[in-house]
Amino acid sequence: MKTFALDADIISYMLRGDTQVLLRLHAEQDMGNEFGIPPMAYYEVKRGLLAVGSIIRLRLYEEICRDFSVGVMSTAAWDEAARLYARQRRRGRSLEDADLLIAAFCLVGGYILVTNNTKHFEMIDGLVCLNWKQ
User: Fold this and answer.
1) How crowded is the C-beta side of 33, counted as CA atoms within 13 Å?
2) 82 lies in which domain range?
3) Contact 4/132 with Cβ under 8 angstroms?
4) 47: closest CA among 112, 111, 98, 123?
5) Which of 4, 12, 64, 122 has the most neighbouring CB atoms within 10 Å?
6) Total structural domains within the chain
7) What proportion of the chain, given as a percentage, has pLDDT over 90?
8) How far apart are CA 3 and CA 78, in angstroms?
């Protein structure tokens, strides 16, 4: 069994009814795989829906969040995020805090990150990413 973490962009595709993403999601569910939502991704989607006043999609999002657990950032995940930040900074690279927090959540929790933004995460050692839009 695999455990996937859904990035905000993938959740947005789901909310828009993207056939490619929904078919892959259902196929993974049929194989008994599980899903979670990183807390930072939860925040990114929710703030966007509230900002544009999308009541219908907000209700659908709340249903998704009931079906897939929204994770909690443990102290270990916060520590991992700080290590990732320091490592990338020493290498002369920078990542958005949201991406660092999502990556740390996945690394500590053993999640496979599902994202269309694989480029944002490719420099993070040990993080497994899948792109369901390719």
Assistant:
1) 17
2) 3-130
3) no
4) 98
5) 4
6) 1
7) 93
8) 20
Output the CA angle 119-120-123, nearest 5 degrees. 80
Alpha-carbon distance values, 70 to 14, 16, 43, 106 (Å): 16, 20, 10, 12
User: How far is the C-alpha of 35 from the C-alpha of 51, rounded, in Å?
Assistant: 26
pLDDT tens digits for 26-62? 999 999 999 999 999 999 999 999 999 999 999 999 9
* Backbone phi, psi, residue 67, to 5°: -75, -40
CB crowding 98-134: b at 16 or more within 10 Å, else e: bbbbbbbbbbbbebebbbbbbebbeebeebebbebbe
CATH number for the domain spanning 105: value is 3.40.50.1010
Kindly give, in sequence order, each residue whose CB lies less than 8 Å from that of residue 91, ignoring residues fewer than 6 positions away.
Answer: 123
For 96-117, what is each residue's pLDDT tens digit? 999 999 999 999 999 999 999 9
For 65-101, write each residue's pLDDT tens digit: 999 999 999 999 999 999 999 999 999 988 899 999 9
